[in-house]
Amino acid sequence: MDPQLDATAQAELVRGGEVSPRELVEAAVERVEALNGELNAVIHPLFDKALESEPADGPFRGVPMVIKDLLCTTAGDPHHEGMRFLRDLGWRAGEDSWLARRFRQAGFVFVGRTSTPELGILPTTEPEAYGPCRNPWDTSRSTGGSSGGSAAAVASGMVPIAHASDGGGSIRIPASACGLVGLKPSRGRVSMAPLGDFASGLAVELAVSRSVRDAAALLEWVADPPPGEPYVAPARSRAYSEEVGADPGRLRVGFMTQAPGGQVEVHPDCVAAAEEAARLLQSLGHSVEASYPPSLDDEEYAPAFLVRWTSGAAAVLDFWSMRTGKPIGADQVEPLTWALAEQGRGHSGAAYLGAVGYAQIVTRAVADWWAGGFDLLLTPTMALPPAEIGSIGNGREENPLLPIVRATPYAIFTAGFNATGQPAISLPLHWSDEGLPIGVQLIAAYGREDLLLRVASQLEEARPWAERLPPSFAGATR
User: Fold this and answer.
1) Does 173 have pLDDT greater than 50?
2) Pairing state of beta strands 252-255 and 287-290?
3) Are 176 and 437 in contact (CB under 8 A)?
4) Of 55, 200, 299, 381, which shows the fewest CB atoms inside 10 Å?
5) Nearest in space to 412 (alpha carbons), one of 302, 289, 331
6) Exposed/middle/buried for 325, CB within 10 Å: 0-12, 13-18, 19+?
7) 170 is catalytic
8) Nearest-CA neighbor of 35 among 104, 126, 112, 121?
C-alpha cells in the first residue's frame, strides 16, 4: 500500500474493491510499528481493536486514522491529555465524543492515539509523561504543537490524515512544522460535545492532512453540529468538496510579515515563505497588497488573551480533579501548567468577563477590515522555523513561565484568529535551505471556509507538495 496516498485515494481503493479495509489497516499498523520508535508519535496503539473492527460504510470506509490524545475521547481507550496524573491513574474514556462518532460514521478506523503537550498548552510536543515527539523532516526538531503527534504520524506516512485541535494555533503550527495542510475551522463549525466551553470559544477541532481535498471532505462530514451548541457558524452554500478546484475569482489579499505589535522578530525563512506565496497568488491573478487589520497590533490583546488562556488552564485542572475524584497538586503536573493555572485562579470573574468582552470588540474591528474589501489575509504561519527539541522547555529548571515567552514566536500569527473565531489554513508552500518545511497561513472572514478551500486547492495545483517527502517516511531507504 502506497503510504503517499491521501485519505480520499485510499477510500477510492476500498470502494473499487482493489483493497479491503483490513488491508489498509494492516499496512498502517506496519508503518506505525516501523516508524514510531524513532518519532514517538503514537503513544496509545489501538491495533487489535482496529484489526477487529468493521468500519461503517461512509465516505472514508476503512481508512486508518489516529486521534490526538486531547479533547476527542474514544470509548474504552486511554485518555491522558499529556498528563502524568491521568497516565498514572490509567484513565480511560467512557464514551466517544460527538466528533469521534462522526469519524467512525465516516468509516475511519482508529489505529492509535497521538502525543500532545500537557493539556495542549505549548506549541511543541514534548510532554514529561511521554517524552518528545520528533519531526520526520529532522528528528532533532520539534513537530510543533499541540497536535504534534498527529502531524508526525501523517507527515511520516503512518496514516493519511489525523485528528487535531487548535486553541491558539495547534492545528496550523504542527502543519507548518511538518509540511502538511492544517485547516482551523470557524468557531462553532465543528462540535466539541459533550464537553462544555472551558476555553471561551478559543478551541476548535478538525485535522491535519496531506491534501486540501481531504480537509474539505472531512469538514463536510463533520460540519453539522448537534442541537444546543454555544456557537453556530454561518451555513455553507454547498458541499465543501465542491470548493476544491472551483474558481475563486480575482481576490484582494492583504499581506503581513511583521509580527502583530512587532512583538517578535520574524525569521527570514518565514518572511521568504510568505513573500513567495504572495508572488504565487499574484501570478494566479489575485491582487496582493501590504495591509492587515490594525487592531491586530493592539497592545492590550496579549494580556487579555492570557486571562482567558490561564483561566482555561485552571478550569481544566479543576475538571480533572472533579472527574477523577482526586485533587491535582503542583507535583502532579508540569511546572508551566501549574503556574498558568495559578495565574488563572488569581483572575476575578470581572477580569475574565472583561477579557472576553475586549476580545469581542477586537473581533468586530478585525471583521471590519474584511468587510472593507479584503477577501483574505496572508501571513507566515510561524515567526520561526521548527524549534529544536528541548529549546522551549516546561519550566522545570527555571522560571516556570519562561516557556510561554519562548513559545510566543510560534503562535504569534495564529492565536489572534482563535480569539476572532475566523477560519485559517496553513499550507506547505516553502522549504528552507536546511530542508525544513515553512508554512504560510491564509485567513478568511468568519464562516468562509469555502473561500479558503478554493484558494488552497488553487495553490496546491500551482505548487504541488505531495511528492515532497521527509527523510523519516514509511518505506524510505534514503
Assistant:
1) yes
2) parallel
3) yes
4) 299
5) 302
6) exposed
7) yes
8) 112
The predicted structure's pLDDT at residue 476 = 67
414 and 424 Cβ atoms separated by less than 8 Å: yes
pLDDT in tens, 54-98: 999 999 999 999 999 999 999 999 999 999 999 999 999 999 999
Provide the percentage of residues in the chain whose pLDDT is more than 70: 99
295 is catalytic: no
CA distance 340 to 196: 21
Rg (CA), the chain: 20
Measuring CA to CA, which residue among 418, 437, 421 is closest to residue 146?
418
- pLDDT for res 477: 43
Q: Could you confirm whether 457 is annotated as catalytic?
A: no
Q: pTM of the entire structure?
A: 0.98
Residue 447 corresponds to which amino acid?
A: G
Q: What's the first-to-final CA gap in the chain, in angstroms?
A: 19
Strands 287-290 and 204-209: unpaired
Residue 478 has pLDDT above 60, yes or no: no
- Cell matching residue 5: 496516498
Over residues 458-473, the pLDDT tens digits come to 999 999 999 999 999 9
Beta-bridged to residue 226, according to DSSP, are none
Q: From the candidates 146, 156, 311, 457, which is the catalytic residue? A: 146
Distances (CA, A) of 413 to 292, 377, 419: 12, 11, 12
What is the maximal distance between C-alpha atoms in the chain? 60
Query: What is the rounded distance in angstroms from the CA atom of residue 143 to the CA atom of residue 205?
Result: 18
